[in-house]
Amino acid sequence: MLYRDLAKVYSDLESTTKRLEKTHIIAELFRSLNGEDISEISLLLLGRVFPAWSDEEIGIGSKLVERSVVKAIGTTLDKVEDAIRDEGDIGLASYKLFQNKKQTTFFSKPLTVNFVFDSLRKLPKISGSNSTNRKISIILELFSQATPLEAKYLTRNITEELRIGVGEGIVRDAIAEAFNIDKNVVERAQMLTNDMGLVAIVSLEEGCEGLNKLNVEPGKPVKPMLAQLAPPLEEIINEVGLAICETKYDGIRLQIHRNEDEIKIFTRRLENITNAMPEIVKLINDHMPHENFIIEGEVIATKNGRPLSFQNVLHRVRRKYDIDKAMERVPLKVFLFDLLFYKIPLLDEPLLERRKKLEKIVDTSSDDLKLSTMVYGTPETIPEVEQLFEDSLKEHHEGIMIKDASQPYIPGIRGKKMLKWKAEPETLDMVVVGGIYGTGKRANFVGSYLLALRGEDNEFKSVVYAATGLDDDMLINLTEKMKEYKISEKGLKINVEPKIVLEIAFSEIVKSPEYETGYSLRFPVIKRIRSDKGLSDVDTVERLISMYINQ
Ligand code: AMP
Fold first, then answer.
1. Is the alpha carbon torsion for 507, 508, 513, 517 positive or negative?
2. Is position 22 annotated as part of the catalytic site?
3. Do 457 and 393 fall within a single domain?
4. CA distances, 422 to each of 39, 250, 370 (Å)
5. What percent of the chain stands above pLDDT 90?
6. How far, in Å, is the centroid of ligand 1 from the Cα of 121?
7. Atom 22, ligand 1: which residue's CA is nearest?
8. Fewest beta carbons within 10 Å, which of 42, 104, 333, 418?
């Protein structure tokens, strides 16, 4: 396929906000493609060239792209920067600038998607002396043959900021529609492999049967199974029959993989954080069998046996330098609770079996690597479960998890099979879509944040402005992020791309025509920045309404 045809599809997708329309456009495209094209294009539609499980990225900043545009069209950096300021983004600016570009290569071949894809994949591999110039020359080769529309999307592909409103959900639905496969089968395959290219090509070549054969592989992270808030305890236990009830630790979820000699640690957002936690790698190497496996657990920070706040663990995760010092200051402890792979995939086994196997293979002689504290929940043992809840709170943990012991591991799904029961009032994970700069001494900071929840169509809908709960560090940190994700600014108001997830406490939900959801929160307080959570973790409008009805 020619890149110019993909650019036309990008443009069609950008011109509609309707999810169904986007799905049809992509489904129609998929039906017309062959093997290699479909796997590359399904990634390119998501604005990437590496699958989600991979931590590789193109890694080209906007400055380098600007310099390449300058060379490609023979203009000055000032003119390119002016165009970006006028148009609001490098893609639109390039569209305008490339209209004045002289055609230099009359007999050149048009760009193919495959050539663009391979070139983008080459970029992160270039390092060492003269690497900047070598990167620019690869980008220039793409630009030399580009039409204005191609330039618009090439610049966005290079910076991995595609902005056409297409997420994994739409591409998955399009695959299901194009090849007449059950949406749930496509979704499961994607959650297991985190490789849309693979899911697309298997769908095209082998259909539903092929997708069903895909499974987890140590070394490639899986989307974690998610939890819902629990209804009253007796109700659940009676419904479930046998539950595994465990302490809920307030840290960060880890998925730890061993593949031959290599141990890798991933967050729930599939980020590879192995380098930030060398002591955990050693613990796992020393206290787990030298076989291939995937385990899950929660890592918390502790001091003198007492859990430290969640922010401490987050700092450890983000730390890139002086890891030794950080290890001393913030010691970590891991509580394991699930086994997804041990020599073979175990996702389809009931939790009860997975837990028993996990218990058999972990050597718990170290204080820093333990199994989560658990009791079996049955109608007869409800007092024991309540005791576990009380003990967990006494030990300064968050509450308990209640898991249906008969259930398989269902990646990426928030469901009734895994429930959480916390002591603290409920909070909402919300995404920032805008803000207002402060005045006076706070004029350089965004002081108030417009927060949104996920609607049915996966669009984010506003609920409330929150301004309290921020200490100075958080304020500086958030303002920097707001500038990074800025879409537009007018007066004191700023609009940003939905990227930053905040956990919000509040006193009450009220009806309010002022906001897109029709609801708002009274006394919203920003509890913490949840950089461990992604857009798919943002709470839904549906949950807000059900909380409103129940309050
Ligand atoms: P939440 O983030 O509030 O939806 O709660 C679910 C999270 O609790 C999981 O993603 C884990 O990070 C964390 N967690 C803490 N302890 C456990 C446990 N014993 N089992 C499962 N998840 C746990």
1. positive
2. no
3. no
4. 43, 11, 22
5. 77
6. 35
7. 248
8. 104
pLDDT, residue 453, reads 97
How many domains does the chain fold into?
3
The domain spanning residue 314 has which CATH number?
Answer: 3.30.470.30
Pocket perturbation via mutation, ligand 1, pick of 249, 419, 527 by most ligand atoms within 8 A of CB: 249
Residue 177 is assigned to a structural domain of this protein? no
Asked if the structure places residue 469 within a domain, the reply is yes
Q: Which of 266, 401, 426 to mutate to test the pocket of ligand 1 (most atoms within 8 A of CB)?
A: 401
Instruction: Look up the domain containing 456 and give its range.
Output: 428-550
Q: What is the 3-state secondary structure (H, E, C) of 152-164?
A: HHHHHHHHCCCCC
Q: Are 383 and 258 in a shared domain?
A: yes
As a whole number, mean pLDDT of residues 7-21 equals 95
Distance CA(73)–CA(30), nearest Å, equals 34
220 in Cβ contact with 262 (< 8 Å): no
Catalytic residue among 248, 333, 403, 422: 248
Average pLDDT on 484-496 reads 90
Q: What is the CATH number of the domain that holds 119?
A: 1.10.3260.10
219 located within any domain: no
Ligand 1-lining residues (CB < 6 angstroms): 227, 246-249, 253, 268, 298, 337, 372, 401, 420
What's the predicted TM-score (pTM) here?
0.84
**Residue 226 CA to ligand 1 centre (angstroms):** 8
Find the Cα–Cα–Cα–Cα dihedral 169, 172, 176, 181, rounded to 10°.
-110
What are 49-67's pLDDT values in tens digits? 999 999 899 999 889 999 9
- Which pLDDT band holds residue 319 (cuts at 50, 70, 90)? confident
Confidence of residue 107 (pLDDT cuts 50, 70, 90): low
Domain presence at residue 168: no
Q: How far is the CA of 225 from the centre of ligand 1 (A)?
A: 10
468 shares its domain with 346 = no
